Amino acid sequence: MLNSNKCLICDENLNETIELTDWRSNENKKFEYYVCKNCGNIQIKEIPENLSDYYSDNYYSLQKSYINDKQFSKIKKFLLKHRELYFFKIKKDILGFLVNVIKPSKEKHRENFAIKFLFDNMNKGIVLDVGSGDNWLWQYFHKLGWTNIIGIDPFINNDIFINGHKVIYKCTFDEFIKNNNCDNIQAVMFNHSLEHIANPIETLKLTHSILPSNGKCLLRIPLNNGIAKRLWGYQFPTFDVPIHLWIPSINTINVLLQKCNFIINENIYENEIDLLMEYYKNFKSESEIPNLSKIQKKYFNKLSMMSYVLGISDIIGLVLEKK
């Protein structure tokens, strides 16, 4: 539990603190974080009472990205489904390739670990995305007929409906589990959301309890000892103060999974510098952004590919399964 001097992952007594700056605001407000000497976790010393105020309107997952509720024709659904399956590299599809040439997809990133996880699991049952934000893509998928994806987020304005069906619920994970039938949930996604939750052990244990024996859990989360941190310290998007309540190390993740009875089925270290810099641009002027030459980016990304061996990635993506 946060707001105590014990590590919320390994229960170690905490004494050392560091000051981290809210880099997204212009006020440069500082917050104290504990540093765990045992597992390497860092966690906020005291959660602000007005935490929701720090989720500004331009926060990437809360940009009111609603789409209209008008239904697609059968032929349009058919063509767009093929396009997205091709675009996201779910399967090789000549028709999808042709449609994408004529009317390209709106999405920027083709190889998306979360999208792959979704398509791997939503034909088996419901995929629950915890901390989804407004997520226009999930709304769009519902319009195409891919309805086995449900989002939840306590910080959106209202529940979101597509074709009369609730697509994204305004609630916490605990509230959703308490008030809904979870028998058909096949997979759960924490796509850069678990670090926003003050009770990660209880949350993952609850996830474990609702998943079937072959169910999967996606965990994408920043790490606190990656390349960007070594280059620029704590002033980088992976340290989103104060809404990142805790930021683990690799060792922290291992302790967490052991306590919650999950094992790693698949992992990927993500460290594409262009993606980190693009996110940074949402909140900072050009003069405030770390300046990288093409050569620096090239070598940064080469180093990123070695991060599995070196253990210095800034973000990790894990597919977990129950022990």
Summarize the structure.
The chain has about 325 residues and is of the alpha/beta class. The protein is built from eleven helices and twelve strands.
Shape: globular
The radius of gyration computed from the alpha-carbon positions, rounded to a whole number of angstroms, is 20 Å
Helix fraction by DSSP (H/I, runs of at least 4): 25-40%
Specify the structural class: alpha/beta
Index terms:
323 residues; globular; 31% helix; alpha/beta
Structural features, described:
- This protein has 323 residues and is an alpha/beta fold.
- It contains 11 helices and 12 strands.
- The strands form 2 sheets. Strands 6-7-5-4-8-9-12-11 form an 8-stranded mixed β-sheet, with helices on both faces. A 4-stranded antiparallel β-sheet has the order 1-2-3-10, with no helix packed on it.
- Strand 4, helix 4 (136-144) and strand 5 (149-152) form a beta-alpha-beta unit.
- The model has no long low-confidence stretch (mean pLDDT 82).
